[in-house]
Amino acid sequence: MAHNIAHPDDLHVHAPLEYVWSDQYDWKLQLVGRTGGALAFERVDGADPTRSFAVLYSDADATFVGALTVNWPRALVACRRTLGRGGASLAAAREALLSGTSRSALGDRRHPSLPAAGQ
Fold first, then answer.
1. Opening angle at CA 36, ends 30 and 42, nearest 5
2. 97-106 in b/e burial notation, b at 16+ Cβ within 10 A?
3. Confidence class of residue 101 from pLDDT cuts 50, 70 and 90?
4. What is the rounded CA–CA span in Å between residue 59 and residue 25?
5. How many H helices and E strands in the chain?
6. CB atoms within 10 A of CB 52
């Protein structure tokens, strides 16, 4: 909206992305985009497959249209970014999800510009 006020000659359409979350005891369920119904889906496991995973949804053209994430906040961020760009394939969404979590899978959770502990 601020862009449209500052640049009335270059208007951007606001296209909100559907999002729902729920905390069920110690489970964090988050849905973004379209899920369920007749959509195709694929499960992608997180660091602990019994507690963290994502389900990626695609339409008949294999276009990524939504995701369910369970106890995996970084996967949700990757999915929201991919959906926000629009038109990504399910394979591209899977790659974005897995590449976006590679540091946490290796146990490096600190920001790359911060020194290691004890330095």
1. 80
2. beebbeeeee
3. low
4. 32
5. 4, 5
6. 20
Q: Directed axis angle between helix 90-99 and helix 73-85, to 10°?
A: 140
Going by C-alpha positions, the residue among 56, 86, 58 that lies closest to residue 68 is 56
pLDDT tens digits for 42-84? 999 999 999 999 999 999 999 999 999 999 999 999 999 999 8
Q: Are 45 and 53 in contact (CB under 8 A)?
A: yes
Tens of pLDDT, residues 5-31: 999 898 888 778 899 999 999 999 999
Beta strand residue intervals within 9-101, DSSP E: 19-24, 27-33, 40-45, 53-58, 64-70
Q: What is the H or E stretch that residue 78 is in?
A: helix 73-85
DSSP state of 63: B
The answer to whether the CB of 78 falls within 8 A of the CB of 96 is yes
